[in-house]
Design brief:
By secondary structure, the chain is of the alpha+beta class. The chain folds into two domains: 45 residues; 148 residues, Jelly Rolls. The protein is 24% helix and 37% strand.
Length: 198
């Protein structure tokens, strides 16, 4: 009789042990699956990115100090001293829009007056400028009051939206107006930056 009671107790304990083992196993399995799923969602979450690439110079600073030109000749310039090629690339998630603004800022140590600097901007889709759009006819440097994406003070060159991953090419030409009596120590320094709501 004692053996039967012991066997029943042993059987009941074994049964409950198996049930507890299964329950613990299921809890661990579903907890780890939930954690892996969360991690997977985090890993898949890719933010929008914007990149400013400098084609003709190694950085985004432009210094002009050598010659003066009238607008007709300035628009034809092709040397690296006066022409700054750059591109803006986007990596945009599906169903999102990334707004951007390209801004140039003047270095306050510049000695040439703002109204004697000529700025001309072209845009291209192919990077070789076989077809260009004149975005900004020759004008002087002036602060913009319609900059939305940053509190940086500067001149807004272009703005737009990326709805897909792509690259847009820009050619910035800067020269000193021919009416300015340029001295050997005169210079004008600009910095190009891009800002976006990535």
């Amino acid at each position: 009789m004692d053996n039967k009671v012991k066997d029943k107790k042993q059987l009941v304990l074994t049964f409950f042990g198996i049930i507890i083992f299964i329950v613990v196993g299921l809890v661990v399995y579903f907890s780890s699956k939930s954690y892996i799923s969360e991690q997977s969602k985090k890993d898949r979450k890719i933010t929008n990115t914007l990149t400013l690439n400098y084609v003709s110079k190694s950085n985004n600073v432009i210094v002009y100090s050598k010659k003066v030109f009238n607008d007709q000749d300035g628009m034809k310039l092709s040397d690296e001293e006066h022409v700054f090629d750059f591109s803006v690339s986007s990596s945009v998630k599906k169903k999102t829009v990334c707004n951007y603004e390209i801004i140039i800022s003047k270095d306050l140590s510049s000695t040439i007056p703002d109204d004697k600097i000529r700025i001309y901007l072209q845009k291209s889709n192919d990077g070789v400028y076989s077809k260009t759009i004149d975005l900004l006819e020759p004008t002087f440097y002036k602060l913009s009051d319609n900059i939305k994406l940053t509190n940086v003070r500067g001149m807004l060159l272009d703005k737009g939206k990326f709805k897909k991953s792509e690259t847009i090419y820009y050619r910035l030409k800067v020269w000193v107006d021919s009416t300015y009596p340029l001295s050997e120590t005169d210079f004008y320094k600009l910095k190009v930056n891009i800002y976006g709501d990535v």
